[in-house]
Design goal:
This protein is α+β, with helices and mostly antiparallel strands. The protein contains seven helices and twelve strands. One of its GO terms (cellular component) is cytosol.
Length: about 220
């Protein structure tokens, strides 16, 4: 199935990056980031949106006690900082590179508004994307607030299955080939990596899943 983080069936990078447009190409550069580099901080000015050409980016904020809350981990082709389109003046979250060779395509808010003004269909897709993204984040925050850790993991796996999964014809299992590390998943469900590993092995012992580094298989129930 297609990810909610993409327009219908189109890679955002191929659609939005100014490098693809003759009018903007000459003055456009990509930004390179190493692991743990920040793209922006909370309270920074919201004057750009960003597309990921390669690598991964963590989106989150810090709680009053200084704890890190991870809202999303985004990968190639995905968009972030999009609230600037809606008039946000200052960031209410941080964006940080997760990989050593992350490449970002920055788009000025005015450039984005120009693209949207000149193409009504494109503008509709942008707003649709933003709505779907907010809906997904709301679901994740509800999980963090109201569900125990094991339930959060199971529901997150169901979400991964919707985004990255397909049915294995030979076994009937749901196969999920995803871009996340165990550390990423632990951050996204609000737990530690050791606890995640314990829970994954519990689900494996219960014959709910089987897993490797880049693949999770939700096993077909027999009987």
């Amino acid at each position: 199935m297609n990810s909610l983080w993409f327009f219908d069936d189109v890679n955002l990078f191929k659609v939005l990056c100014p490098h693809k447009f003759k009018a903007y190409k000459q003055d456009h550069d990509f930004d390179a980031y190493k692991k743990k580099d920040y793209i922006y901080f909370e309270e920074d000015s919201s004057n750009k949106i960003y597309l990921i050409e390669k690598g991964k980016v963590k989106i989150g904020y810090y709680s009053e006690d200084g704890g890190e809350v991870v809202k999303a981990i985004l990968t190639k082709g995905e968009l972030f900082g999009e609230k600037a389109i809606l008039g946000e003046s200052k960031r209410d979250e941080f964006a940080q590179s997760v990989d050593d060779k992350t490449s970002i395509c920055p788009i000025g808010v005015q450039t984005m508004h120009d693209l949207m003004r000149d193409n009504q269909t494109f503008s509709f897709k942008v707003y649709k994307f933003i709505g779907l993204k907010f809906k997904k984040l709301e679901r994740r925050l509800q999980l963090l607030l109201f569900k125990d850790t094991k339930t959060r993991l199971v529901e997150f796996l169901d979400e991964l299955c919707e985004e990255y999964g397909y049915n294995c014809e030979n076994t009937g299992d749901h196969v999920i080939k995803h871009p996340y590390t165990q550390k990423d998943i632990a951050s996204l469900i609000g737990t530690s990596r050791p606890t995640l590993n314990i829970l994954l092995n519990e689900l494996k012992e219960e014959s709910y899943i089987d897993f490797s580094r880049k693949e999770i298989r939700i096993l077909k129930k027999v009987g």
